[in-house]
Amino acid sequence: MIENAIELKGLTKAYRGRKGSQPKVALKGIDLNIPRGSMFGLLGPNGAGKSTTINILAGLVNKTAGTARVWGYDIEEDPRNARANIGVVPQELTFDAFFTPREMLEVQAGMYGVPQADRRTEELLKAVHLWEQRDAYSRTLSGGMKRRLLVAKAMVHTPPILILDEPTAGVDIELRQQLWDYVRELHARGTTIVLTTHYLEEAEELCDTIAIINHGEVVACEPTKQLLKRIDEKQVTIMVAETLSEVPGSLAAFDASLNGDHGVTVQLNQSVANVGAVLAAVQKAGLTIVDISTRETDLEDIFLQLTRRQSGEAA
């Protein structure tokens, strides 16, 4: 029984530049273990190295150095078995315009050597809500339908690992929910899901573990709940009846700023101070509290802080 679905050690990729120029290093010795059965988020800004990592695992890009194992198989020493255990839903919508969804899945299953009796074309098309379009040319499908068809195509050989590279880009809210319902179902059956997305709230809701890549390096890799605890800040906004021209002196000890004519916003580090201390300071200033609202740290805050910090260090 393998412990990790994917194991990367010292994974490096450098692209050759023009003659006389330095190579472009896309991955700088990545070490990353993706546990079997996890819903794993791989996040990072554009150009961070996410797609390069996925393309190496899929056999589309050759690594420069390091090792990568998929379901226990080294992608270089045993590429056939490595690829047989992974399904990749690419970011780009690539189709043969004159193939129908049913034909496309049948051809894909044949390429993976799935016997006719074991093919799940009907099951997969129904699962992604495309059974009614089974005999339509793929060129006539909407962007959302094409995105879901790519998911079905990646699952024809029932791989234990499914990688989704920006799968909900350009998909409306209803279709996105349908897609995630199916992904959750696959995960419940034991499929390891690896997700890259620009929708941070999506990763926060779905993923049990998140890795953040920036400039070809892993800057964080932790369980989602643990990652969210790394920054214990809370934003507190207090609205008062009086008109304010400046931050009250009693709030000088806090990171406070005016919010309109009747509000004060405080950035609160919960390990140092609490909301009660802020309210006491407002009351000490003789102000009448009308309303209070708070906003907890979310994944976007952490993502921006980590990537900005690394960019600052790089500079």
Automatic annotation (TrEMBL):
GO terms for molecular function: ATP binding; ATP hydrolysis activity. SMART domains: AAA. Residues 6-240 form the ABC transporter domain. The keyword Transport applies. Keywords: ATP-binding, Nucleotide-binding, Transport. Transmembrane segments: none annotated. InterPro entries: AAA+_ATPase, ABC_transporter-like_ATP-bd, ABC_transporter-like_CS, ABC_transporter_ATP-binding, P-loop_NTPase. PANTHER family: ABC TRANSPORTER ATP-BINDING PROTEIN, ABC-TYPE MULTIDRUG TRANSPORT SYSTEM, ATPASE COMPONENT. This is ABC transporter ATP-binding protein. It comes from Gimibacter soli. The lineage of its organism: Bacteria, Pseudomonadati, Pseudomonadota, Alphaproteobacteria, Kordiimonadales.
